[in-house]
Design goal:
The structure holds two protein chains of two kinds. Chain A is built from two helices and six strands; from the N terminus they run βαββββαβ. By secondary structure, chain A is of the alpha+beta class. Chain A has one domain. In chain A, a hairpin with a 5-residue loop joins strand 4 and strand 5. By secondary structure, chain B is an alpha+beta fold. Chain B has six helices and twelve strands. The chains are: A alpha+beta, B alpha+beta. Strand 6 of chain A pairs antiparallel with strand 2 of chain B.
């Protein structure tokens, strides 16, 4: 389990946001990413939510209920 | 919903939402940092939704708590939280600001009504957290209907309104204006707009400026500490003051030292001459 904010950043990091370039003759960039995924969630141990992708019974020894996370990122221009 | 007797792992909804808000802020900050480490574009969190499997509980104080569903627990409620980007003007338009309230004292600070914890919780659920809100919700001619709605005896609401209308001194601060040392007294109902008398250590002093929540008075040269008395509209409020111990804080004399050695509730600030 990791903090929710770390999970959110990791989710964006898991997507290739651009590919190609001059050498390929074409460059593709993504300007919006929307994801919906089941997650395991724990709260109460420390402020906020701790979450992870479902680890399943083999990972945890338990059948933890799955919650549903939807997140949309948008590209906002030059940094 | 599980009534009363909250479990150890359940947390108040307010705290939970505030903590998620902080986490989303941190996520946004992290995304911004990422952009500075070589990413060609900045990325922002546009929407965030989460459907949580929780058990809703209520503790003895009437607080609503959430507890995450555990393994093999059935019957959990699904709570859908939907966070979206809102702009500063939207926040300013839709958020109540206690700072704008004419009388922002918490209802917990008002004595005289003898409200039980339960009754205070019922008032809060109606959105009444401070005296200004109480006065707007329950003017004297509507007390009956409000009392019925929250199941609080009208007499208690009347007592609370009466208590909230009495003058109260909450704190004071030393104000330096040129070579003078003045005293600003802060509180509530400090003037009725007609007549306000202030005594420091038993002696009447000049009131330079009077508003319901603040009085500016000129202490006499020999005043160093003692009782503050504010008399207005036939009522009296008291507190204690302490001025810088060096001589010469009276009118027209110089050499006033800065700051105050008083305990909590006292400060010092400069005022334009």
């Amino acid at each position: 389990m990791i903090a929710l904010d770390e999970l959110i950043v990791a989710l964006l990091g898991s997507v290739p946001l651009e590919r190609g370039g001059a050498a390929d003759g074409v460059r593709v960039a993504i300007d919006e990413v929307a994801m919906t995924l089941p997650v395991e969630v724990r709260f109460g141990a420390r402020p906020g939510i701790e979450a992870s992708a479902p680890r399943g019974r083999y990972g945890t020894g338990f059948d933890l209920p799955h919650h549903l996370l939807s997140v949309t990122f948008t590209a906002g221009g030059e940094p | 919903m599980i009534p009363k007797g909250a479990s150890a792992r359940a947390i108040p909804v307010d705290d939970f939402l505030a903590a998620i808000g902080e986490q989303l802020d941190r996520a946004q900050d992290a995304l911004a940092i990422k952009a500075r480490t070589g990413r060609p574009l900045t990325w922002a969190l546009k929407e965030f939704k989460i459907a949580l499997q929780v058990f809703v509980e209520i503790d003895a104080q009437g607080q609503v708590l959430w507890r995450s569903a555990g393994p093999n627990e059935s019957g959990a409620s699904t709570v859908n939280l939907d966070f979206t980007t809102i702009t500063r003007p939207m926040i300013e338009e839709n958020t109540y600001s206690a700072l704008d309230e004419a009388d922002g004292r918490s209802i917990d600070q008002i004595g005289g009504a003898d409200l039980s914890d339960d009754e205070r919780v019922r008032l809060r659920r109606l959105g009444v957290r401070n005296v200004g809100q109480l006065k707007r919700l329950a003017p004297r001619e509507r007390l009956d209907s409000v009392g019925d709605a929250v199941n609080i005896p009208v007499g208690k609401l009347e007592a609370m309104l009466r208590a909230s209308s009495r003058p109260t001194v909450q704190r004071h601060e030393v104000v330096k204006k040129g070579s003078e040392t003045l005293l600003r007294i802060q509180g509530a109902n400090l003037t009725d707009g007609i007549n306000t008398e202030v005594r420091l250590a038993g002696e009447p002093v000049e009131v330079l400026d009077a508003t319901p929540d603040s009085l500016l008075v000129r202490p006499m040269e020999h005043h160093t500490s003692g009782q503050i008395e504010v008399m207005t509209a036939g009522e009296r409020a008291t507190s204690f003051f302490r001025l810088p111990s060096t001589s010469g804080h009276g009118a027209g004399t110089g050499n006033a030292s800065s700051g105050s050695a008083s305990s909590g509730g006292t400060g010092s600030k400069e005022m334009p001459s």
